[in-house]
Amino acid sequence: MFGDSPPKSGLRSIAPSLLSGGLLGLAAPPWGWWPLAWIALIPLWVAVNRTPSPRSAFSKGWIAGSVYYLILLVWLVGMHPLTWLGFSWTASLALAVGCWLLVSLIAGLSFGAWAVALGHLSQTAPLTQISAATLIWVILEYGLTLGPLAFPWGTLAITQSNGWYLPWAELGGGPLLVALILTVNGLLSTAWIQQSWTGVITTGAILLGALSWRGTLPTTGSELPKLKVGIIQINITQEARRTLTTKQIMAMVTQGYQDLVTQGAQIVITSETVLTRTWDETAFSTPLWQAIQRQKTPLLLGAWGETSAGFTNRLYALGANGVIDQVDKVQLVPFGETIPFARFLGNFSPLGNPGLIAGLGKAPLQTPWGAVGVAICYDSAFPYILRTQVQEGATWLVTSTNDAWFGPTMPLQRHALETLRAVELGRPLVRASNTGSSGAIDPRGQTLILTQRNKYDLVTVAITPQQRATLYTTYGNLWILGVLLGAVGIGQKKFPRF
């Protein structure tokens, strides 16, 4: 048994953790080698079963998780240089690298917690360990969507955004994909530990069976008329935003809007807070408002909002008669738009606009072209935000974002997250990003269009809004948790060993 092996020291003792973390990192965008996710956890799983003490298991899991996030979040270094904010070149680099390291090490703690649980389960029946470990991972990922430090960016589901098993997200969302990945890794790990072919055969049967379903839920009668959407990728860097006037930016938006209407766009979308002002009474005297009145084509405009409690990050739906509807960003970025535990930490941030007010995010945005589910920037990482709006009648989805702060791999990971959202909810999704990439995804997860980064671009794309409800839209994660809980009991009572 591997559990009887003597402990290793030095680099050999952490090699399995480094390998698992590295393989998971390569499975995620931008690399996108998605098959690696189905075997990536085997080295860590086997290593924890060899030395299941809580301290050893935690350190192995933490190292694996930290390596995964260091690869995934390298775009945080792309914040450098921040000299335009007044930092020296050296201080800017230190801030960017420090942020990257700190966030990665903290995010890796969830892997450590999971590994402790895995080690605790090492003496149980194999199928009990596999199903319980899978259940715990799914619960931990859900926990990362909660609280002031919520950070679900690293869900294992993003590794499958271009994979064969993406259609399964329609049944159970990202959590179902994660559960399948953990189950396969567990079966193969147990087969390795026990030197048995049973786990390999079982794994092959699961994967082949999963491939037999390719998203065949009925769609007849659910499609609405096609809609031609225009996207303004205005391409204003954060440094340029400090020098351009509101009037200049509004002129750029106005020209882009008019050009897209000329190209046949039925509705036009801008990026997040493309205007660094509110849309108030003074805005109704601007050339942009005059263009909207003249063209009568709705515009979804990113700007600030103002409430009695403070300012918000808002997307306005503007029509010929004024503001049709508006929605505020729900999930504010920690230390960028809000300061967690500000009572103790103060309200200072060298980046962003701390102190914004979060929106409720319950109802979709109403437009002349139907109800739209809206996610502003960080919102797209949280499945519940768009799922709630689809339950309330949204027939297509919009994300409005500004990724100009970060390195080039970040938009690719956002695209992966939004591909999951489109498939989970069975809705086409259109993204307008400040510096790119902007694009559109159909309800099956196929990319319809994707722009290049760091260039001004105006694009149109035809989408087909949908009315049908996927199983994930209706039932969410509850049935997955029920199946996994049942599997824990069944594995213990009926299948004590392979």
Beta-strand segment tally: 12
What Rg, in angstroms, do the CA atoms define? 24 Å
Number of helices: 16
Oligomerization: single chain
Biggest sheet details:
6 strands, mixed
Beta percentage is 5-15%
Q: Report the order of strands and helices.
A: HHHHHHHHEHHEHEEEHEEHEHEEEEHH
Strand order in the sheet with the most strands: 5-4-3-2-1-12
Taking all residues together, what is the mean pLDDT? 90
Instruction: Note the gap between the termini.
Output: 14 Å
- Helix fraction, binned, reads 40-55%
Low-confidence stretches: 1-5, 494-498
Broad structural category: alpha/beta
Question: What general form does the structure show?
Answer: globular
Can you walk me through this structure?
With 498 residues, the protein is of the alpha/beta class. It contains 16 helices and 12 strands. A 6-stranded mixed beta sheet has the order 5-4-3-2-1-12. Strand 4 and strand 5 form a beta hairpin. Helix 1 crosses helix 3. It starts with 10 loop residues before the first helix and ends with a helix. The model is unreliable at 1-5 and 494-498 (pLDDT under 50).
Any descriptors?
12 strands, globular, 16 helices, six-stranded mixed beta sheet, disordered C terminus, 498 residues, disordered N terminus
